[in-house]
Amino acid sequence: MLAQKFECEINELDRVLSNKENCLLVDVREYPEYAAGRIAQARLIPLGELETRASELDKQMPVYLICRSGRRASQAQDKLLSLGFRDVYNVRGGMMAWQAARLPIESSQNAPWSLERQVRLVAGSLVLLGTLLSIFVYSAFIYLAMFVGAGLVFAALTDSCAMAMLLAKLPWNKTNSQTCSIQRG
């Protein structure tokens, strides 16, 4: 039997958190996104780490999952349901909806640049480098710029970005998971 998938609106999550109901709020974004703005009670477990870190979560408690827009939270919900969790909610609209409703967020003072901004810097630098090297050193360097351009097109069409996944693994985009503790009501 397939487990039922639940969704909740941000106003419902705000009510649950305000009433200090016994639940877990898990943010499945990457650390730079989380550090830049998060719900105070949220525990960071990036989507890519969820299966290996699911044992940190209590299967008996309701789990609310949030990401930027709801897409990664939906994927996280599928993973947790397949691991035997039953009371798992995808927060519809994610942090975008939370911020649009002007609900409170907190951020880290020394948050790294967003992954999107890091991708733009690296991709732009590689395109510029490839173009300049093709003009001044060897014409075949133009393929570097073409490769990066093709990667950006592929990233847009598939809504996934290999460069962002690689950048997320760099040390400044990681945090000590012990500094992000679970908040319970």
Average pLDDT figure = 92
The dominant shape is elongated
Write down how many β-strands occur, each being a DSSP E stretch of 2 or more residues. 5
Strands of the biggest beta sheet: in what spatial order? 1-5-4-2-3
CATH H-level superfamily title of the largest domain:
Rhodanese-like domain
Strand content: 5-15%
CATH second-level architecture of the largest domain: 3-Layer(aba) Sandwich
Residues in helices, as a percent range: 40-55%
Secondary structure category: alpha/beta
Catalogue the unreliable spans.
Answer: 177-185
Describe, in plain words, how this protein is organized in 3D:
Helix content is 45%, strand content 9%. By secondary structure, the protein is of the alpha/beta class. The protein folds into 2 domains: 6-111 and 175-179, Rhodanese-like domain (Oxidized Rhodanese, domain 1), CATH 3.40.250; 115-172. The protein has a 5-stranded parallel β-sheet. The protein is elongated and about 65 Å long. The protein starts with 5 loop residues before the first strand and ends in a 17-residue tail after the last helix.
Topology (elements, then pairings):
Blueprint: E1 6-8, H1 10-18, E2 24-27, H2 31-36, E3 43-44, H3 50-53, E4 63-66, H4 71-82, E5 88-91, H5 94-100, H6 115-136, H7 142-158, H8 162-168
Parallel strand pairs: 1-5, 2-3, 2-4, 4-5
Helix pairs in contact: 6-7, 6-8
What attributes does this structure have?
alpha/beta; Oxidized Rhodanese, domain 1; 5 strands; 9% strand
